[in-house]
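BUG: 3D viewer hangs when loading the predicted structure for this chain

Environment: internal workstation, default settings.
Expected: structure renders.
Actual: progress bar stalls at 90%.

Input used:
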Amino acid sequence: MTEQVPPTAVDEPDTPTTTGVPEVDRVIADVDRLDDLPLEVHLGAFERAHDALRAALDARPDVQTGVETGEHPGEPA
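Structure tokens produced before the viewer hung:
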């Protein structure tokens, strides 16, 4: 007998993920396209994604990430 696993958002490629931050949305779209590319290009793509996300965070000093405190934006302190 095989166990059936319910589908997740990862299984639904027609459902775009958006954050409302154009720079981040572009990174997500680029990473989503990796399924169609050979495994050899994934490392470089993830490194570029990391750099782009870091640059997006650095460019938005008004956004508090809570990394230092362990808090999440929008949560009460």
